[in-house]
Specification:
The chain is built from 8 helices and 4 strands. With 171 residues, it is mostly helical. GO terms for molecular function: 4 iron, 4 sulfur cluster binding; metal ion binding; oxidoreductase activity.
Length: 171
């Protein structure tokens, strides 16, 4: 488990870890005037909120992945002006009619690298990505998904238009 315990030399008994933890692995020690108790038997979900919120850096942990600070970036507007970001977001639309041209591997690698650093709601990065560029395999997988969706009446009803469109596009 990445959370090992509490460094009681640093802990000031502020109890922030107790309120931060959705898994209730921390509790107040009512039998002594010292500190908070960490219960390693309870299931930590590895969200890292106790680490992030502890003002004294008293949570002992390991293997929680890389930690990044963005101090060197400065103001977001220095990277991209608001107007440009707004135009990009406002103009971004889903495209359902894909080009036949393959995306260069260099671009795909950049996209995957960016995905590795996308927010995960946890301070760990357990995601794995598989890149599939073989059009025959993509068609087989798409057909299998359509087949599975078609077996479930609620999914079939919910996605009937998409399934019909997919059938036309994959021909």
């Amino acid at each position: 488990m990445p959370i090992i315990g509490i460094d009681y030399d640093k802990c000031i008994s502020c109890e922030i870890c107790i309120s931060a933890c959705p898994s209730l692995v921390y509790s107040k020690n009512n039998k002594a005037d010292t500190k908070v108790i960490f219960d390693p038997e309870k299931k930590c979900i590895l969200c890292g909120q106790c680490i992030a919120q502890c003002p004294e850096d008293a949570i002992i942990y390991e293997n929680m992945g890389e930690s990044f600070t963005f101090g060197e970036i400065g103001e977001l507007s220095s990277l991209i002006p608001y107007e440009n970001m707004f135009k990009f977001l406002a103009g971004n639309r889903s495209i359902r009619r894909y080009k036949k041209d393959k995306v260069p591997i260099e671009i795909l690698n950049k996209v995957i690298k960016a995905m590795e650093y996308a927010p995960t709601a946890a301070n760990m990065r357990p995601e794995n990505f598989t890149l599939i560029s073989d059009s025959d395999l993509i068609k087989k997988m798409s057909d299998a998904i359509v087949e599975e969706f078609s077996k479930d009446p609620s999914l079939k009803e919910q996605f009937s238009k998409q399934l019909e469109f997919h059938a036309k596009e994959m021909r």
